């Protein structure tokens, strides 16, 4: 066992099998190499001219190329081989290439190494030396690739502030139970909820709870992709696939391989592209735009929307088969106005963040400020609360946030148009007004609203009044 081999544990599996592309114009050379490598358990393919080499690279993955420098056209200058070397590097700059030269043409071999070949071997070759070169180069290549991947992952984890998910209210308990049950699974999850309810935080939490947590979660705002870039973003493209495709590009599905892909604003994906998504979700297979090479990806898909996808599907705007793939489990996040108990916790959380960020010594909220926050309807949900606290921290002059610092109107809705409000918001507003008019007398307020006392009580409890 060579030193490098010890570094790449564990024992080889089928996918660890070394894959060699043999490029030589001479049939007997190809055959001899093929037999030698096959006997070692390597996977091999052969190519007898430069075009065939490039073709093979497009349709299959290799760990290394054994490349003759001379092909039919002229048999000694090695020019064709040098050209081929740079074309291979253009496709995959990191692909290890070992060149084969005729006995006595060391000059050529040196030139190839200068241009990036990893090693060379002279014909007729020594079997043991050839095998040892291949193993060393492949091991090295795999170690480098693995280190690069780990580095990228670590950077991602460092950049990704681990998600903070605050949910103490009763309304959030079913969601928390579901999170802990399905977090560790591979189930595709559809996260629904109004704007700013925390769909992205829930997606991050699901990812962190899963065995895929050490791999990246890749987010795509499917709603925000300019027309025409959808496929290239998700599946990648190959150089030359279209006018602007100057280099190969890896798509989000491939980036998320073995990790999680978060498709945000999923309802905005046009029908035509929904079909493309459906295929990769069903088969795990995809092609980069402009390439016929099918690639397998292992991706857990989380998606989010504030639309009602069942409704969208009933009205023909969203494919029901795609919906079925996406919502193996559906997680609904209730709006903030239905979980007012969370408001003080969330507010304190944001206060801490912003007081630190803006270097302010603020210890908390005045009672009136807290009262104001508890009463507000929060149509923008947690994000609106976040922004309100940030603003308050910025303009606060004292030890505590005052109600006026929050910039929330006293009577929500009095300025908002009724058409823009939900039924619940209107209900909340009417109840509040009735209570104010009757000075908190519940019997009178209930009578004015045409409700029984207990029905009013239930609603007051629901709205935290
Ligand atoms: N439960 C929570 N605990 C802590 N922070 C939260 C919570 N929910 C939301 N937030 C914060 O509120 C903001 C909005 O959350 P997020 O972006 O996840 O909402 P969203 O549902 O994806 O919104 P949109 O529909 O507009 O995309 C973020 O800054 C997020 O960190
Ligand atoms: Mg979001």
Describe this structure in words.
The chain has 465 residues and is α/β, with parallel strands linked by helices. The protein has three domains: 3-148, Response regulator (Rossmann fold); 170-332, Rossmann fold, CATH 3.40.50; 337-462, Helicase, Ruva Protein, domain 3 (Orthogonal Bundle), CATH 1.10.8.60. The protein is built from 19 helices and 16 strands. The chain has a five-stranded parallel beta sheet, with helices on both faces. α5 (106-114) links the parallel β4 and β5 (119-123). α17 (423-437) packs across α18 (442-449) and α18 (442-449) packs across α19. The termini are far apart.
Task: Give the topology.
Elements: H1 3-7, E1 19-23, H2 27-39, E2 43-47, H3 50-59, E3 64-68, H4 79-91, E4 97-102, H5 106-114, E5 119-123, H6 127-159, H7 173-182, E6 189-192, H8 199-209, E7 217-221, H9 230-235, E8 236-237, E9 249-250, H10 252-255, E10 260-264, H11 271-283, E11 285-287, E12 294-296, E13 300-305, H12 309-314, H13 320-326, E14 329-332, H14 342-357, E15 364-365, H15 367-375, H16 381-395, E16 400-401, H17 423-437, H18 442-449, H19 453-462
Helix pairs in contact: 3-4, 11-13, 14-16, 17-18, 18-19
This protein binds adenosine-5'-triphosphate (ATP) and magnesium ion.
Adenosine-5'-triphosphate (ATP) binds at residues 164-167, 193, 195-201, 306, 346, 349, 382-383, 386.
């Amino acid at each position: 066992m060579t030193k490098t081999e010890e570094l790449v544990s564990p024992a080889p599996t089928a996918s660890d099998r070394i894959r060699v592309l043999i490029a030589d114009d001479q049939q007997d050379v190809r055959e001899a190499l093929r037999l030698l490598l096959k006997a070692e358990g390597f996977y091999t393919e052969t190519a007898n001219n430069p075009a065939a080499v490039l073709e093979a690279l497009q349709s299959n993955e290799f760990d290394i190329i054994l490349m003759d420098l001379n092909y039919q056209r002229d048999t000694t200058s090695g020019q064709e081989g040098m050209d081929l070397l740079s074309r291979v590097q253009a496709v995959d700059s990191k692909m290890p290439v070992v060149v084969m030269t005729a006995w006595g043409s060391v000059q050529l071999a040196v030139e190839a190494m200068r241009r990036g070949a990893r090693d060379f071997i002279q014909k007729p070759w020594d079997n043991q030396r050839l095998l040892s070169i291949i193993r060393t180069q492949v091991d090295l290549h795999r170690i480098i690739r693995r280190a690069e991947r780990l580095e990228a992952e670590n950077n991602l984890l460092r950049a990704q502030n681990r998600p903070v998910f605050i949910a103490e209210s009763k309304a959030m308990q079913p969601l928390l139970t579901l999170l802990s049950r399905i977090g560790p699974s591979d189930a595709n999850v559809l996260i629904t909820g109004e704007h700013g309810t925390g769909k992205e935080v829930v997606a991050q939490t699901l990812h962190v709870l899963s065995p895929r947590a050490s791999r990246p979660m890749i987010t795509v705002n499917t709603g925000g992709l300019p027309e025409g870039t959808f496929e290239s973003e998700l599946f990648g493209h190959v150089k030359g696939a279209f006018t602007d495709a100057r280099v190969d590009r890896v798509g989000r599905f491939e980036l998320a391989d073995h990790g999680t892909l978060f498709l945000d604003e999923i309802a905005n994906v046009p029908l035509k592209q929904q079909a493309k998504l459906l295929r990769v979700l069903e088969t795990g297979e995809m092609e980069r735009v402009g390439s016929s090479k099918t690639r397998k990806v292992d991706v857990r898909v989380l998606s989010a929307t504030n639309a009602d996808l069942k409704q969208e599907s009933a009205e023909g705007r969203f494919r029901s088969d795609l919906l079925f793939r996406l919502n193996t489990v559906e997680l609904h996040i209730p709006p903030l106005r239905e979980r007012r108990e969370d408001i003080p916790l969330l507010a304190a959380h944001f206060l801490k963040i912003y007081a630190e960020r803006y270097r302010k010594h603020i210890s908390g909220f005045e009672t009136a400020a807290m009262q104001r926050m508890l009463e507000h309807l929060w149509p923008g949900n947690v994000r609106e609360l976040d922004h309100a606290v940030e603003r308050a921290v910025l303009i606060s002059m004292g030890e505590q946030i005052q109600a006026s610092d929050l910039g929330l109107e006293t009577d929500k809705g009095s300025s908002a148009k009724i058409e823009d409000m939900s039924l619940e918001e209107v209900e909340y507003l009417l109840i509040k007004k009735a209570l104010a008019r009757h000075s908190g007398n519940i019997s009178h307020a209930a009578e004015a609203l045409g409700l029984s006392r207990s029905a009013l009580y239930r609603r007051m409890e629901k709205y935290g009044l």
